[in-house]
Amino acid sequence: MDSILFATKGNLILAKNTLRLSVQGYELLDKKRTILVNEMMSLMGKADALQKKIDSTFREAYDALQQANITEGIMHVKQLAHAVPVHQEMQIKMRSVMGVEIPQVDINEEYVKPTYGFMGTSMKLDKAKRHFDDVRILTEQMAEVENAIYRLATNIKKTQRRANALKNIIIPRYETIVADITNVLEEKEREEFTRLKVVKRNKMRKKQ
After folding, report:
1. Inside any domain, residue 187
2. Which H or E run contains 98?
């Protein structure tokens, strides 16, 4: 048997302290969950707006690329594309939301200078490149937002499980323990009071 179940004043104090801490813990977890949900909902709205912008920018980029292919020729555009270096200038920082580490991409929104010469190319190619630069920036922003949403959702589930365990298991258990120990101690006090009254009455009879 758990020693906390024995009806002593020490165990009553311990049970009350545990109950108080459990209630405080539940309240903190509930506040944390609310803040995380609000943060995630805000990011989901941002993700929806970004997705719409990405879709429209992609359409504009491919339309511009198609025009450049017609003007410059597909093989020429393909050769120029091979000269474009892979974009690797990305710095990732972390920010904390209620203890949840959220990655924050330091996005360089400056447009990379063309790696091809202006001789033998047209403005249509420049326009296509500009649109695909926009796609890159938007995609990096979307990656940041989606990663943050995933991390928040994962932590919300963990927080929910812990809060439910406190609310549905720990708190009711210690409420029952406190009530049971209190009832036993009060019963003992009543018995002790009755016993003392009997002892006192017997002493008075003996004196008579």
Report:
1. no
2. none
* Overall domain count for the chain: 1
Query: Is 207 domain-assigned?
Result: no
Q: What stretch of H or E contains 168? A: none
The CATH number assigned to the domain holding 102 equals: 1.10.287.3240
For residue 115, what are the contacts with CB-CB under 8 A and spacing of at least 6?
A: 80, 83, 84, 85
Residue 197 lies in a domain: no
Question: How many alpha carbons lie under 13 Å from residue 162 in its C-beta half-sphere?
Answer: 18
- Predicted model pTM: 0.73
Reduced 3-state DSSP string for 103-118: EEEECCCCCCCCCCCC
Instruction: Please give the structure tokens belonging to residue 142.
Output: 């979307």
Count the helix, strand and coil residues of the chain and give each as a percent rounded to the nearest 5: 75, 5, 15
Residue 173: in which H helix or E strand, if any?
A: helix 171-207
Residue from 148, 150, 135 nearest 51 by CA: 135
10-residue stretch averages of pLDDT, the chain, 208 residues long: 68 93 95 94 93 92 86 79 68 84 76 60 77 86 92 95 95 93 86 71 68
Report how far residue 138's alpha carbon sits from residue 131's, in angstroms, rounded to the nearest whole number.
11
Tokens of 3: 């020693």
Contact 45, 148 (CB under 8 A): no
Nearest-angstrom CA–CA distance, 42 and 199: 73
